[in-house]
Amino acid sequence: MIKTVFSGMRPTGRLHLGHLVGALQNWVKLQDTHRCVYCIVDWHALMGEYEHSENIKSYVYDMAADWLACGVDPQRSIVFVQSQVPEHLELQMFLSCLTPLGWLERNPTYKEQLREITTRDLQTYAFLGYPVLQAADILLYKANAVPIGEDQLPHLELTREIARRFNSMYACEVFQDCAAILTPTPRLLGLDGRKMSKSYQNTINLADAPEEIAAKVKTMFTDPKRLRLKDPGHPDECNVFAYYKAFVPARESEVRDWCEGAKRGCTECKKILAEALVEYLRPIREKRSKIVADRGYLDAILDQGALRAKAIAVATMQEVRKAVFR
Ligand code: TRP
Ligand code: SF4
Prior knowledge:
It is a single chain. The protein is mainly alpha-helical. It contains 14 helices and 5 strands. It folds into 2 domains: 4-187 and 294-324, HUPs (Rossmann fold, 3-Layer(aba) Sandwich); 208-288, Tyrosyl-Transfer RNA Synthetase, CATH 1.10.240. The strands form 2 sheets. Strands 1-2-3 form a 3-stranded parallel beta sheet. It has a two-stranded parallel ribbon with strand order 4-5. β1 (4-9), α1 and β2 (35-40) form a beta-alpha-beta unit. The chain binds tryptophan and iron/sulfur cluster (SF4).
């Protein structure tokens, strides 16, 4: 039987190159082999951004446009917004009842976020339960495979534990086991060499205009040991080279040669990269701008996705209620 993939992203800002190579390219490929369900998880966004909820709606549209522009195909895949399918919350309630507090309090992602995020108050009831809603997302569609980043592995493990606990507590087989699909590509760093993240302002966004891309690439850090043009460079230690490998693989050996042989300087190397990135993103940018110009089209896609998601969700919830209130 064809396997179901489920994944979600929080609408908290524009998507960038890291999302493209770290997730979206993989999502697009999975459409050839799986039934895919891709969810814009606005409730998960709200858990962190409840004080600035006014931005979430526009980020939902941005995200839908970014996904479609990158090749997520709403004909083949189910593309929808979490809050349009309230069954997610209903299942979260059932799962919350049997999830021990200790599992949530021990969750490494939770502890790390409480420690690191100081600009928002995350000491809330909902935020502790973040992984329970994530488990509900996945289990509602009986997904077998969940493409995620490594940072999400503890949440997937919790999902599996919650599913097993449900099945054994109610002596049923409502939920299946699920496995992570880790993205094969190595992590792309931000312009400054730190983790790529909106909060560091070190991203190239899918919607960036060509001039923005050029200006951003200019600021990229290069091999620190290559101070002058005649110093040979070390491409494997240079973030610019990592971008060539990810986006312009056809020129990889040429760049290695001019860098190690001190034939061209970093300024020129970056200028060529910028031009290549502009070209690389051109089809995405063009498709994206057509999509955002037609809000009605996006609404229709998302409404239709929600209907298709709902059909599956309703059936699962019938089984869940029957297993619990038997
Ligand atoms: N927690 C995920 C993240 O921040 C987003 C998410 C919510 C998700 N529900 C999901 C991912 C279900 C995969 C499956 O990246
Ligand atoms: Fe990096 Fe290019 Fe400079 Fe080499 S020439 S150090 S690859 S920017």
